[in-house]
Amino acid sequence: MKVDDGDLLNFWKALRTTTIGEKDNSLKLPDNIHFLGRTDEASVLFIRQCYRDLLKVVFSNNTRRLIITGNPGIGKTFFGYYILYELMRKNATVIYDKANKFPILFSNQTAVVGETLFSFYDLLNKQDVWYIVDGKEPHDVDAKTILVCSPKKNYYVEFDKHPLTKTRYMSTWDKREIDACWEKIYKNKVDKKIVDDLFYKWGGIPRFVLEKANEGTQQNKLQEAIDACDESILMSSIGKSEAKQDISHKLIHIMTNPPIEESNDYDLEGDDGLEEDDDDVEYVEEEPYTQKIIKFASVYVSEIVIKNFEKTIMNKMRTELNVSLSNGISNPVLGSIFEEIAHTILKNGGKFKIRSLDDSARYDQTINRRDKIYTFLQLKR
């Protein structure tokens, strides 16, 4: 069964007369028109450079099945809308299938909603038809299939097994993209200082830096993710190509390799406050957007996680040291650790209880904070 939807049809007709503003890289629908005809969807689309780059892969004759993935909240759904716009310009027949929504058929002047995907079964088995899937596992069909989804493998584990399936990674946003999008869409909605502060905390995730900047419960999710994370597991994922499934993508970001000429223009050092080592993202002549490296979401996140990780290690070492001392067990490794712990505590200064080794007298002594630890040999000099 297929259903006509007036708002959906109005969107499709409006899209056919809308052009991308070359100066501000945006696609703005007419007033009261929203993507897919839904009032809870956006009406302006900011066109990122990576959208244009990835579109070349979408339209390649060598592409029949394609996965576009990356961090949640970076605009993969909007990339699907951009594909839809470009396919409209080519007069292509498109079946758009979004998670928890009814599938939609777009063709020429027609836009209809299907009760189930089976409503379009015949079309899905035509090779000249496009099948865009957002946030769910695609069906195995002959139509050219584009899946946009988060890194959760359950969305694409079977789809990825197909010999013709390709995968590309969408990058997080740099500060210039955030600023440009704020200027075009969010200038009257979010204070710029708030945006700058949130970028420092979240890194390049526009969902939290722009879209939900003023929503306190959404902003609390970063601290909630930090509190819930296992620092040792998270630390072991940094710099790797894969992260443990239970690590929140609010704390880690997927870095990828943009085109070399594009990467040369980007000052990656400082875009999100993280200084990039050469080992983090290596710009070699690999096909763009095919590499994946895990990094901290931001300096803010890395500092907190590393500090918590250090506390965890120190507490564990103190516990083991106390057990060793209480039981009279000699352990040279713990002895060295005890020395480091003692040096750290003394260097930070404070009031300490002192016991003389000569007469066992006990008293308190205040030690000022020191920036450097001196050895006895250095003091003799």
From TrEMBL:
It comes from the Eukaryota. Transmembrane segments: none annotated. PANTHER family: ATP-BINDING PROTEIN, PROTEIN KINASE DOMAIN-CONTAINING PROTEIN-RELATED. This is 15188_t:CDS:1. The lineage of its organism: Eukaryota, Fungi, Fungi incertae sedis, Mucoromycota, Glomeromycotina.
